[in-house]
Amino acid sequence: MDPKNIFSTKRFQINKANATMIAVLAASTFIVVFTIVAGRALLSQRSYQARVIDKKEKARDQLKKNIEETKTLVTSYKSFTDRSENVLGANPAGQGEKDGDNAKIILDALPSKYDFPALATSMDKLMNQVGVKGTFSGTDDVVAQETKASSNNPQVVDIPVTITADGSLQSIKDLINVFEKSIRPIQINMITFSGNDGKMNINITAKTYYQPKKALTITTEDVK
Hints:
By secondary structure, the protein is of the alpha+beta class.
């Protein structure tokens, strides 16, 4: 056989073996890399699923706790409102000045909405109750208060007011007494008097309050 043919055949066999080896190495490398990447992906997915399950279990436990606490809250609310006398010692089912159940009294004492016209009407009613003629004034700040309509952490908001009234000394005393006993808290900051026993003028600088309702916010959480 021609030596050249023998050399060519061996060369071909070596090249074929090398190509086969490279193919095997490439396939092995691909399998190893794929296994590593797939393994990391599976571990990452497993870790993610574990975090999701943990969050779901916490949400479930919180929901169960809230449901149980709701039962206690309902019982406490009924106990607070279903009484023969309200906190003012009046009739819960009556229509008088101090009547009404305790829930209504609390809402009257600290409203959850800013309503300046209703406040003015309430003040006029208190002045008429003791027979004095007066005026109620303040700033109707409804636009600014709209941003506080509800909150996750509501705070008590001051409402500055001014009351000017004329009447006898006794009626002026009665007016101050009515303000002190009002269901809605009225904090008097300053009082000025003028006149005599028969006809006096009083100017009161005070403030009352309201508290925006607490918002019930249902949130979602992204698990990463």
